[in-house]
Amino acid sequence: MNTVFQKFLEDSEQRSFDSEHRKRLNYNIGRYDIQVSKGKDQYQNLELAKRRAANIKHKTLNNLDKYLAEFENNFSKRGGKVIWAPSEKEAQREILHIIKKSKAQVIVKQKTMVSEELELNELFEKNKREVFETDLGEFIVQIAGEKPYHILTPAMHKSKEDVAKLFHEKFNLPPDCSPEQITRFVRDKLRSEFIRADVGITGGNFLVADVGAVALTENEGNGLLTMAFPKIHIVIVGIEKLIPSLEDLDLFFPLLAQHGTGQHLTAYNNMVFGPKTEFEPDGPDEMFVVLLDNRRTELLGFKEQRRALSCIRCGACLNGCPIYKSIGGYSYRATYSGPIGSVISPHYLGMRDYNHLSFASTLCGKCTEVCPVKIPLHELLLYNRHEAVSKKYISYKWRIIVQGWKTLMLHRWMIDKPKSKLKNRMISRFGRKMWGTRRTLPKIAPKSFKERWKEIHP
């Protein structure tokens, strides 16, 4: 058994039976469910909106090279610079080159999962640069020395008491301080860092090809400050975030807000077309867009799984998934968790070591049901499983078990002939370890349904 899989099993068991963890997660996701239900009221026909969004993303992925070139051309016309990064290492090298060339010492970051994919905080700290997460949830997990727990809600696993204790230890705030007091403290602290910052780093919710713009949506205003104050603005974004036209945003912005937080529209929706011009008093002198591939084109080569690249990172599938709500975000040991992570992480990190994520699903279909761009996630998990089996990444022991089960299912007499006592002995001997110590092994009834039916209806 590979080490990654073993750790996944250990983490999952620990989290699943941590009642306090489950309580927090269920409470936070429960509040989300209420808001999302209200947010749907803005749509006369939500299903139609989702179909339109899915069609646009499908069209974009089929012509991704065209739209990427169009975006680069239009963005460059306004003085922006595009950097193509085929891999994680190349993206890190290019970003670090900009930092060193500008002699930047202080960096502020807006919440972006791609920066987590590149492990930028660790990279900057290793090179003796100060880096500050400016999203409140990201700031909390940063000072706690942790990673984001959720695509959209980084500190979902922490209660307000946990956060108060953390800020008491780190900043000597009162141990019983309220969320409002903590928010006010973080806002005051980060304002000075925005002013000091040499470089601002953001993600991009969408790249708009026909106008060469980066579209950013947020609720705290930290993204706007990250772009406006520093002299250099770096946008890091996956190549799949393209949409064809500016007009498409009136569809995607509300869908993202409604499925992400239940809002009709988030508080701040910004369009950035490049660095400031000579007629603009504020904004960065230089702006870079780093287009990250990092195995996305490999995923694009799969006929079915490529549809996962349509994801707009709303987090809805995580909040609907019974597995995520049980084992939490850290058990996945990957940047992207939940159903979408279980589809794309094996392709980004290696199918051999991470194929188990695609098996960690009930295939209930809830993730597909809630997806705003209609990605058939539970079906894509099956395609991943097929690939893992066909490439023999599954253990030999498990393949033998499945082959044996297949043989039994195809020959009914093999199931009927042994008596129930023998069946129970076999289950007890070979199934106890797999069934786990926390569950009682099921017992085979003395008579099968088939036998009982014959007695009742001779």
Could you please describe the fold and organization of this structure?
With about 450 residues, the chain is of the alpha/beta class. The chain has 3 domains: about 5-10 and about 310-390, Fumarate Reductase Iron-sulfur Protein, Chain B, domain 2 (Orthogonal Bundle), CATH 1.10.1060; about 45-295, Rossmann fold; about 395-455, no CATH class. Helices cover about 55% and strands about 10% of the residues. The chain has a 6-stranded parallel beta sheet with strand order 1-10-7-4-2-3, sandwiched between helices. Strands 8-5-6-9 form a 4-stranded mixed beta sheet, sandwiched between helices. Helix 16 runs parallel beside helix 20. It is globular. It starts with a helix and ends with a helix.
What share of residues is helical?
A: 40-55%
Amount of beta strand:
5-15%
* CATH homologous superfamily title of the largest domain: NagB/RpiA/CoA transferase-like
Report the uncertain regions. Answer: none
CATH hierarchy: architecture of the largest domain: 3-Layer(aba) Sandwich
Radius of gyration: 25 Å
- Main beta sheet: 6 strands, parallel
Number of helices: 24
CATH class of the largest domain: Alpha Beta
Q: Which fold does the CATH topology of the largest domain refer to?
A: Rossmann fold
What topology does this entry show?
Elements: H1 3-16, H2 19-39, H3 46-62, H4 64-77, E1 81-85, H5 88-101, E2 106-109, H6 113-118, H7 120-126, E3 130-133, H8 136-143, H9 160-171, H10 179-196, E4 199-202, E5 206-208, E6 213-218, H11 222-228, E7 232-238, E8 242-243, H12 249-260, E9 268-272, E10 286-292, H13 296-300, H14 316-320, H15 322-327, H16 338-349, H17 351-354, H18 356-359, H19 366-370, H20 377-390, H21 396-410, H22 412-416, H23 420-435, H24 449-456
Parallel strand pairs: 1-10, 2-3, 2-4, 4-7, 5-8, 7-10
Antiparallel strand pairs: 5-6, 6-9
Helix pairs in contact: 16-20
